[in-house]
Amino acid sequence: MELNFNIVINNLPLFWQATQITLKIAVLAFAFALLIAFIVGVLRSYNIPAIFKLLLSAYVEIFRGTPLLIQLFFIYYGLPSVGIIMDAFTAAVIGLALNGGAYMSESVRASILSVSKGQEEAAYSLGYSKLEAIWHIILPQAFRVAIPPLMNGFSSMLKETSLVSVISITELTRTGNLIYSRTLKPFEVYLALGLFYFIMTFSVVLLAKQIELKEKRWTL
Amino acid sequence: MLKAQKVSVLLVCLLVGMLFLVSGCSQKTNDNAKTGDKSWTNVEEREELIVGMCAQYPPFESINEQTKQPEGFDVDLANALGKTLGVNVRIVDAEWEALIGGVNKGDYDVLITCMSKQESAGSNVNMSDAYYDLNEIIVIKKENTSIKSVDDLKDKIVGVQSSTGAEIAVDSLNGLKEIKRYNYNNDAFIDLVNNRVDAVVVGYAYAASQLKNRTDLKIVNSPVGETAEIVMVMKKGNDTLTAKLNEALATIKTNGEYNQAYEKWLKL
Question: In the list A176, A181, B163, B182, which could disulfide-bond B187, CB 3.0-4.6 Å?
Answer without folding.
Answer: B182
